[in-house]
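Design review, sub-item: ligand-bound model
Attendees: FS, YL, KQ
YL presented the inputs for the DOR complex:
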Amino acid sequence: MKLLLKNGHVVSSFNKLEGDLDVLIEDNVIVGVADKIEEAGVDQVIDCKGLAVIPGICDMHVHFRDPGQTHKEDIITGSEAAAAGGVTAVACMPNTNPVADSPEVIRYIIDKAKDAKVKIYPVGAITKGLAGDELCDFKALKAAGAVAVSDDGKPVKNAHTMGRAMIDAHYAGLKVISHCEDLDIIRGGIMNAGVVSLELGVPGMSRTSENIITGREIQLANDLQIPIHIAHVSTKEVVDLLRFATKRGVMVTSETAPHYFTLTEDRLFTRDADYRMNPPLRTEEDVKAISAAVCDGTIDCIVTDHAPHTAEEKSDFLKAPNGVVGLETSLAATLTKFYHTKQMKLIQIVRLMCENPRLILGLEGGLIKKGAVADIAVVDLDKEWLVEPEKLHSKSKNTCFKGMMFKGKVKYTIVNGKVVFEDKD
Ligand code: DOR
Ligand code: ZN
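KQ shared the predicted structure:
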């Protein structure tokens, strides 16, 4: 099967490629990238004139609820949401039921992912049952197919346990992804602690919780000389810590999500739990600092923390679980915020969303080049669209971007040389 992408604007950060080029795909491999490739002998031609052709996005932080809560999302529907967002690979977090703390659960995910539209890479747990005590068998998780370990959704409370985990995971060839939160500080808070939580009379989550544990992880990475990845950065102080650490050569990488550079705690005035996630939306100053850090490369990746929850659960502002879906809006939100305001070039966005996550996890793809795997997103950068929750492919509709207009929409998503999504709007 030969597929030709004609006349697209090709952008690939890893090999610093940018230009109006044709891309020829044979089966699952890119076999040619050139000014003009003949159509003779090609099975399918897609006219990409006026469209951007970029490597498929790798979202290294999603929650697919499978096994255990498949009424919220399963591996197949999660993969459909991913495909609709131009995402061709995801790393799914282990807070499933049962927890992905054993080779059996990792194998279940990999097996079910055979029918998925995109590539699914499981993240194993750091501790058994995410309880923070007993470390998992990282070598066994790795052998079963885990690509990293994390207790995401919960912190590893004890610094000694975290240090041991980093050492063991390192020797097993896995990176630790840290959910930085101090539950003794959080004490049941449900939104950012600040003027809005005070006005609403709602328990707050102090920024100190995230700042302190991120500082701890950076110190561990420095002292042990072992890399660590910091999940979902939301505060300006963490941005300062990351700058300080990377300048000194500490092996720390990090990610943030579009809601942290787009929205503030003011949204919570609506008392709508679709604006509640962990870490929470913070202040304008945090949004500015996160935005600057994404633009200057202090933060390495944009992810979604795609966290599906039912409308019923989300209907109770105080009791709702934290989390928002994001796979279908992440590229659009990023283009709207940074590309269309000229704060970032497309090649930088490709680095943050397509290249860096794969480099951090050691995954294939993330570039457009002869010989590379044919995982590609074709994007209409200028198409404006309204975020309507009911139109999302995800089983859950808890998006914090509902009702917003974005500029930039995925037109085709290609995985292993096959078109797995086409926008027909
Ligand atoms: O908002 C969040 N939701 N943050 C997390 O850390 C976990 C996630 C979930 O699993 O729902
Ligand atoms: Zn998460």
